[in-house]
TrEMBL record:
One of its GO terms (molecular function) is cytokine receptor activity. The chain crosses the membrane at residues 216-239. The gene is IL20RB. Keywords: Membrane, Signal, Transmembrane, Transmembrane helix. Residues 137-213 form the Interferon/interleukin receptor domain. The keyword Hydrolase does not apply. It comes from the Eukaryota. Residues 17-121 form the Fibronectin type-III domain. Pfam families: Interfer-bind (PF09294), Tissue_fac (PF01108). InterPro entries: FN3_dom, FN3_sf, Ig-like_fold, Interferon/interleukin_rcp_dom, Type-II_Cytokine-TF_Rcpt. Residues 1-24 form the signal peptide. This is Interleukin 20 receptor subunit beta. Coiled coil: none annotated. One of its GO terms (cellular component) is plasma membrane.
C-alpha cells in the first residue's frame, strides 16, 4: 500500500478531490427527498397541514412536524416545537388545531424519515394566521312549532356563535333577535343565519333562506278548547235555568204585588153553632177577601 504523501503533489490533490466527492455523493444518497407541496387547510377554525408523499419503493416513509409561533420566532431564539401527535406518522397530514392557539402568524415544517435516514425540512412558503380560516354558513333546519319558529343549527363548538335573521315574507325589514317572537298562524316566515367567531371577529356568509308557514291547527285547537271551556261553564247555568222554567210552568207561585199589601183592615167574627164555637179570622184587603183555615175553639 502506497501512502498518499508518496505521490506527487498534483496527483495527491486529485485523490483528495475524488474522495471528498465520493463522500458527498454518499451523503446525498443517505438523504431522503424532502416533502413537497406543503400547505395548510383551515375551515371553521380547524387547521390541517398537508404535503405530498415521499415514495421509496418497498419502504414505509414516516413524517415529523414542528411549529414556530410568534413568541418562539421573536423572543426564544427561533426555536421549533415538535408536535407530539405528528411525530413519525405515516399519513401526509397533521391536525395542528390545538397548536395554533393565538391569532398570530405561525410557521410550520415537515420532514421525511426512513430508519436512520431523514430528509431536509420543508417549510410553509407563507406564514399562517388563523384569522384567514374559511367560515362556512351553518347547516340550518327551520320549522313552525305552534306559535313559534324552531331553528336548529349544527354544533360547531364552543368558539362559534350564530346570528339569526327572520322576517315575515313580503315584509323585507329584517330583524335580528335572540328569542323569536310569536308568529301569526298561517303566515309565511323566512329565516337565514350566519356563523360568527369572536376570537377572530369574523362572520361567514349567510345560509340559504328557508321559509315556513305558521301552524293553522293551533288556532283550530285553541278555538275548540275555548269552546269546550265555555260549554262546561255554561252547562250548570243552563240546567238551572231550565229547572226554573219547568217549575214555573208546572207549579207557579202567585206573588201578590206590593200595591195590594200597603194597607189592610182586620175584622173578627164569631158564630156559635151548637156546643162548639168556631172562630174565623177574616182579612179585608182593599176590597179583596182572603179566608184562612178556621180554628176550632172549645167552650170555656
Amino acid at each position: 500500500m502506497v501512502a498518499l504523501w508518496e505521490y506527487p503533489l498534483s496527483q495527491a490533490l486529485r485523490i483528495l478531490v475524488l474522495v471528498s466527492l465520493s463522500g458527498g455523493i454518499l451523503d446525498e444518497e443517505a438523504l431522503l427527498p424532502a416533502p413537497q407541496n406543503i400547505s395548510i387547510l383551515s375551515t371553521n377554525m380547524k387547521h390541517f397541514l398537508t404535503w405530498s408523499p415521499v415514495t421509496v419503493p418497498g419502504e414505509t416513509v414516516r413524517y415529523s412536524v414542528e411549529f414556530q409561533g410568534e413568541y418562539e420566532r421573536d423572543y426564544a431564539n427561533e426555536i421549533w416545537i415538535p408536535i407530539s401527535e405528528c411525530s413519525l406518522i405515516i399519513v401526509t397530514q397533521c391536525n395542528v388545531t390545538e397548536d395554533i392557539s393565538a391569532t398570530v402568524p405561525y410557521n410550520l415544517r415537515v420532514r421525511a424519515n426512513l430508519g436512520s435516514r431523514g430528509s431536509k425540512w420543508s417549510t410553509l412558503k407563507v406564514l399562517f394566521n388563523r384569522i384567514t380560516t374559511f367560515l362556512t354558513p351553518p347547516v340550518m333546519e327551520v320549522s313552525a312549532d305552534g306559535y313559534h319558529l324552531l331553528v336548529k343549527l349544527e354544533d360547531l363548538g364552543p368558539a362559534f356563535q350564530f346570528h339569526i335573521f327572520y322576517w315575515r315574507k313580503g315584509q323585507e325589514r329584517i330583524s335580528s333577535v335572540v328569542h323569536l317572537d310569536t308568529i301569526e298562524a298561517g303566515a309565511e316566515y323566512c329565516v337565514k343565519a350566519q356563523t360568527y367567531v369572536e376570537a377572530i371577529n369574523r362572520s361567514s356568509n349567510f345560509s340559504q333562506t328557508q321559509c315556513v308557514h305558521g301552524s293553522i291547527w293551533m288556532t283550530t285547537a285553541l278555538v275548540s278548547f275555548v269552546g269546550f271551556v265555555v260549554g262546561v261553564l255554561a252547562l250548570p247555568f243552563l240546567a238551572w235555568k231550565m229547572s226554573q222554567i219547568f217549575q214555573y210552568s208546572c207549579c207557579p207561585v202567585v206573588v201578590l204585588p206590593d200595591t195590594l199589601v200597603i194597607s189592610f183592615v182586620m175584622q173578627r167574627a164569631t158564630a156559635v153553632e151548637g156546643p162548639m164555637q168556631q172562630k174565623q179570622t177574616v182579612l179585608r184587603i182593599q176590597g179583596s177577601m182572603k179566608v184562612f183555615r178556621s180554628q176550632t175553639v172549645l167552650p170555656a
